[in-house]
Amino acid sequence: NVSHDIKTPLTSIINYVDLMKKPHSEEDHEAYLDVLDRQSQRLKKLIDDLMDMSKASSGNMSVEMGQVDAVEAVNQALGEFADKLEKAQLIPVFRQPDDPVYMLADGKLVWRVMSNLLGNAVKYALPGTRIYLDLNRVGDQVILSVKNISREELNVGAEELMERFVRGDTSRNTEGSGLGLNIAKSLMELQGGQLHLLVDGDLFKVTLIFPTQ
């Protein structure tokens, strides 16, 4: 399935390069360039994600654990995605405790996990709805849940949906590689944390669990 996902944009690139070698109009030239740019970016994203997945799942990735301010990490991610969320007509609602919350994690990997989750929401959440981010400390764990309503009907369970991300199912791979959740899960495990997925009707919920020590 992965080889098929890579072959699709590569074949398109080869075909359009061949078209550009033949006589064509200026209008066609611009259209061909647009397709080449789009497909080459898609291919680059696929390869980058495959490399990330390989490194994360094999543990071949440097991890620098330390005390991370969970509230600051979430706010930073929301700030970085503010324009994309607004463009997608999504309203983030961040609910947090009054007291500071610190977790044991790698700040860079936390950012990459949050980037994958918010990126998925931008692509797949129903416009005009809210994304809820709930942060709590329970015992020796910090728990962050991210919830949104899917734009498309989710008529499969969480386990199958996670598998669909891994396979790059055609219904959800119009953008990116479909590997976002799988990479996020591996990155969480590298930090001694966990990622759980829950699907309830059209509700899509990811729960991140971080240790505090």
Distance between the termini: 39 Å
User: Would you tell me the structural class of the helices and strands?
Assistant: alpha+beta
Low-confidence stretches: 165-174
Strand content: 15-25%
Radius of gyration: 19 Å
Q: For this entry, what is the oligomeric state of its chains?
A: single chain
Count of individual beta strands = 7
Helicity range of the residues?
A: 40-55%
SSE string, helix = H, strand = E? HHEHHEEHEEHHEE
Enumerate the strands of the largest sheet in spatial order, edge to edge or round the barrel.
Answer: 2-4-5-7-6
Mean pLDDT: 85
How many helical elements?
7
Described by strand count, sense and barrel closure, the largest sheet is: 5 strands, mixed
Question: Can you describe what's shown?
Answer:
This protein has 213 residues and is an alpha+beta fold. Helix content is 51%, strand content 23%. It contains seven helices and seven strands; from the N terminus they run H-H-E-H-H-E-E-H-E-E-H-H-E-E. It has helices at 2-21, 26-58, 70-80, 82-87, 107-124, 158-167, 180-190, and strands spanning 66-69, 90-95, 102-105, 129-138, 141-149, 194-200, 203-211. A five-stranded mixed β-sheet has the order 2-4-5-7-6. Strands 1-3 form a two-stranded antiparallel ribbon. Strand 6 (194-200) and strand 7 (203-211) form a beta hairpin. Helix 1 (2-21) packs antiparallel against helix 2, helix 3 packs across helix 5 (107-124) and helix 5 runs antiparallel to helix 7 (180-190). The chain is elongated, with a radius of gyration of 19 Å.
